[in-house]
Amino acid sequence: MNDGHPPQIDTAVPHEARIYDYWLGGKDNYPADRAVGDLIREQVPTISAMARANRAFLERAVGYLAGEAGIRQFLDIGTGIPTAPNVHQVAQRIAPDSRVLYVDKDPLVRAHARALMSSTPQGRTAFVLSDFLDVDAILSSTELRETVDLGAPVALLLIAVLMYFDPQEGNDPYPVVRRLLDALPSGSYLALTHPTGDFDSEAAAGVQAVAKRAGMTVLPRNQAEVGQFFEGLDMVDPGVVPVLSWRPDPQEPPIADPHSAYYWAGIGRKP
C-alpha cells in the first residue's frame, strides 16, 4: 500500500520481477538481477522464450476474460515491471470500462506504476504495494475499494507468482489463493501460470539450486499440484495444460512442441 514514503530499492539484491524483466529484454534491471538471470539461463537456455510465452498467455487470457467471459474487473497480483501490453491495455481494448487493480511487493514496480495508470476515461486502474501473502492488506486497501466492486465478478490473475511460495518455508500459497477466491463473488475467475519440472526435471532442479544460492525461492509444481489451486472451480477448456497449448493464437504457426515452455496454465470459473 502507498505509505507516502519514497520507494526503497536495493539494487544489490536480485529480485524476481527484475530478473523477469531482464529475460523479456527490459531495461529495469541491475547487475545482481542479470547475474542470477544468466545463471538460470545456463540451466534453461530458452528461458527468454519461455518468459515471452508466459507473457503471451497473459494477453490471451485477459482477451478471453474481457471478451468471451464478459469480465470487467481484474485483480492482478504479482504484476511485475510494466511490459506492454499490460492487463488494462488488453482489457480496455475490448471493453473500455474495464477496471484493473495491480498489486506487487517490489518498490521498483511502484516507481514505474505510472505506466499502469493510463486508463481509458470509462475505466480505471490503480496500484497497491503489497505482498501476495498479505490478503488483508490487499482486500482492505483504499485502492481496491475505489477500483473493484466485490459484488460483481472479478478475474484474479496470478501469473508466474505462486512458485515463490513454499509451504516448507512457512509460506503456503494454497490457503492464500482460497482466501482471495472466497472474497470474490460467483462468476469470478482465476487465471494462473506456474513453472514445472514435468517437462525437464533436471533443468527445474538446476533452477531451484541457482535460486536458493541467490536467496530466492523457486518451487516448480507438477500438473496435479497446479490443478489444486483450481479446486472447487469449473475449468475453462482446455483445462490445466502447457502454457503454449492454452488456446494458442490461430493466426500464429502451429506449435511444434508444446512442452518447450516449462509452465502449466489454466483458467477456472467460480460457480
- What average pLDDT do the residues reach? 94
Report the end-to-end length measured between terminal Cα atoms: 31 Å
**Rg (C-alpha, Å):** 17 Å
Share in helix: 25-40%
List the helices and strands in order: HHHEHEHEHHEHEHHEEE
Overall domain count: 1
The CATH superfamily is identified as Vaccinia Virus protein VP39
Query: What's the number of helices?
Result: 10
CATH class: Alpha Beta
Counting helices, strands and paired strands, the structural category is alpha/beta
Major sheet characteristics? 8 strands, mixed
Q: The CATH topology is what? A: Rossmann fold
Strand content: 5-15%
What oligomeric state do the depicted chains represent?
A: single chain
CATH architecture: 3-Layer(aba) Sandwich
Record the SSE blueprint.
Layout: H1 16-23, H2 31-43, H3 47-66, E1 73-77, H4 87-94, E2 99-104, H5 107-111, E3 124-129, H6 135-139, H7 142-147, E4 155-159, H8 173-182, E5 189-195, H9 201-213, H10 223-227, E6 234-235, E7 241-242, E8 263-269
Parallel strand pairs: 1-2, 1-4, 2-3, 4-5
Antiparallel strand pairs: 5-8, 6-8, 7-8
Describe this structure in words.
This protein is of the alpha/beta class. The chain has ten helices and eight strands. It has helices at residues 16-23, 31-43, 47-66, 87-94, 107-111, 135-139, 142-147, 173-182, 201-213, 223-227; strands at 73-77, 99-104, 124-129, 155-159, 189-195, 234-235, 241-242, 263-269. The model has no long low-confidence stretch (mean pLDDT 94).
Outline of the structure:
With 271 residues, the protein is an alpha/beta fold.
Keywords summarizing the entry:
271 residues; alpha/beta; Rossmann fold; globular
